[in-house]
Amino acid sequence: MKADPASAPQQDEFDRLLIAMRPRLHRYCARMVGSVVDGEDIVQDALIKAVQAWPAAAPIAQPEGWLFRIAHNTALDFLRRRSRLAALETSQGAEPMANPHDATALREMTRLSLRLFMQLPVGQRGSVILIDVLGCAPREVCEITGMSLVAVKAALHRGRARLRELAANADHAPQPELTPSDRARLSAYAARFNAHDFDAVRAMLADDIRLDLVGRLRMRGKVEVSRYFGNYAKAADWHLVPGVVEGRPALLVVDPTKPDAAPGYFMLLEWSDDGVTAIRDFRHASYIIDGADFWLSEH
After folding, report:
1. pLDDT in tens, 238-258
2. In which domain, by residue range, is 23 found?
3. What CATH number is associated with residue 76?
C-alpha cells in the first residue's frame, strides 16, 4: 500500500513542532511540578503520548494548544502519583483580572524560583505559568486546563497576588553542601574530563553504565558509552564544575570563554562501588537550566 503523499509533509511539520515546542513545554511542566529534572521526565512522557495519538488525532486545528493540554494532563498525573494533588486543589471564584500581557508581571513571574510556584494551588499555578510565563491568552488556558474563563481569571488574580507575597517573604536558606564522598567523586570525574583525559574517565565507568544524552540518544554498556566522549574531545565550549542541582549532586557546565556567564546546562551522575552507573547529559536540552535551583562548589 502506497503512503499518502500528503501525509509526509504533515508528519514532518509535526516533528518540527515537537522540537520547537519542547523548551516551552518544559518551562511549563517544570514550574507545575517544582523541578526542572522531573519537568523533563514529564515532557518526555507527554511527547511520547503526542506521537502515539497524532495519527488518529490529525489534523489538529490548534496543535500547540493540543500539546500543552497533553503536557498539562501528564503533569497532573505526576502530581497525583506524588499524592499531593488533593492538597493543591484550588477554590475558584470570580475576581477581576489584571492585564494578562503585562510586561512587568511577565518579568517578575519568570524570575521566581520553582519552589515558590509549588506553594500555589494547582489551578492558580497553571494559570499564572501559562499566562505570565508563557504568554498564553486566557481562552487558550481554558482549552488547555479545562477551566472556565471566570475560573482562569480568578486563579490568575489570586496566584499573582500570592506569588508576590511569597517572593517578598522568601527565606534565604543556606546553600546545600555536597557530602565528602559526592564531592570527591564529582571532583575526580570533572578533573579528568576537564583535562581531556577521557581514557581515565572511561576507566571510571561501570560495565553496565547507562547514558541518556537528552533529546538525542541513549546508550548502554561501557563499550558503547565510551564513544560518547569523542564529541566532547572536539568541542571547546565546556568546563565541568561540581555542584548541586535541586539538591542532587551534579556537574554544571560553564563556557570557559565566558567566565562571568551562568552555567549553560548540567550533567547528573549515579554511582555504585563499580563506578559511574548512569550519566544524564543535558547538553542538547540546555533549556533545562531555566529556573533550576543550582549551586556551584567552585568556579
Report:
1. 999 999 998 899 999 999 988
2. 12-168
3. 1.20.140.160
Number of domains in the chain: 2
pLDDT of residue 91 exceeding 80 = no
Nearest residue to 285 via CA among 43, 69, 68, 63: 43
Q: Which of 168, 192, 225 is the last residue of a domain?
A: 168
Whether residue 135 is found in the same domain as residue 18: yes
153 shares its domain with 191: no
